[in-house]
Prior knowledge:
Structural class: alpha/beta
Number of helices: 13
Bound molecules: adenosine-5'-diphosphate, magnesium ion
Order of helices and strands: EEEHEHEHEHHEEHEHEHHEEEEHEHEHEH
Amino acid sequence: MKIKNINSLNSLQGKKIFLRLDFNVPMKAGKIKDDYKIKAGLETINFLMLKKSSLIIATHLGKPKGKNDKKLSTAPLARRLAKLSGKPVKFIPDLVGDKAKKAVLKIKPGEIIFLENLRFNQGELDNDNNFAKELASLADIYVNDAFAVSHRAQASVSAIKKYLPAYAGLLLAKEVQAIHRALKPKKPLVTIMGGAKIATKAPLIKSLYPASKYILLGGGLANNFLKFYGLEIGRSLYDKDSLPIIKKLLKNKLKNKKIILPIDVVVQEKSGRIKSKKVADVKKSETIFDIGPETVNLYAGMIKKAQTLIWNGPMGKFEEISFKYGTMAIARLMASRSSGKAYGIAGGGETVEALKMSGMMEHVDWISTAGGAMLAYLSKEKMPGLTKIIS
Ligand code: ADP
Ligand code: MG
């Protein structure tokens, strides 16, 4: 894999850089709830400041659907960036209009301009060439440091590269390298998958199947397979369209011994009582909310043999205290193996939440907050944001 990294360019002095970041942070009533993405962006920003370039920063925030929406203005992000970086950041409430063009004319080396929410313009969502061209006209060089949106065909990560020389930011380069390592895994590779929607997870199972020694399933995802094999799953979370997906997935693989299902589960009875039992004993009136202790033991044995571990999706409804044990056990196993014995990566919105809850974050080799993009990359889907940057 070759990465056109921005740190390979010799002279950046006085160059205007269009820096696409992912500052799509969780917000509540106009306030930033968690600024880890802004902190993560500082590395590339500081690097480019040291090189005396001029920065034109842009990001999306939420889903304003191509229209102005005051509540989703990026102004608070610009203010937080100024605070965290200790440098003046000039917010421009514009994207490709006169205000932006004027500001860019006046910008000096070492200065930062922060544009309004990219998704206020429908052209962004449509990957529109004209909009991309106008964005490009603001700068000399394009840098993508927003891996989280690099699986999307949108103007500021895709079409813009037709009009500017394009490079990877430091964070994006690191993220792609970390995830790529799992695609060329040191074997045995053990893949652990759970969570909810099978439609979004099936491509990953398919793509990781050949290289994996085992694919350990849990969560709502496993329920679909249990049902497919004719087991009672009661009132459990289940995708009614999952049958054809699983059939297709297991085509020619029906004798497979790679896909491993829970042997016991934690269920809640109608009365509210919670207990663990064998999968064959689940009743119509019960709901599966977690994997059981025997399953944890079985999975632990397989995880301990792995040289590479990939984890996406919680093993149960971990947000509720009674059902978090399966997921917390996997988090601990990931942590204990990742620290030197195996290479471990984990990703997905709720998976990261679960790891945070477990207190095991720093013991896993790579944790990707870019759930969708990581799944797309590992599933070998097209990555419009990476073309011309990574080959
Ligand atoms: P990620 O964002 O990590 O990819 P998903 O979005 O696929 O994960 O799914 C996570 C959600 O699935 C969690 O909120 C969790 O509560 C839910 N979940 C997992 N297993 C079950 C289950 N057995 N019953 C109900 N909800 C479940
Ligand atoms: Mg999720």
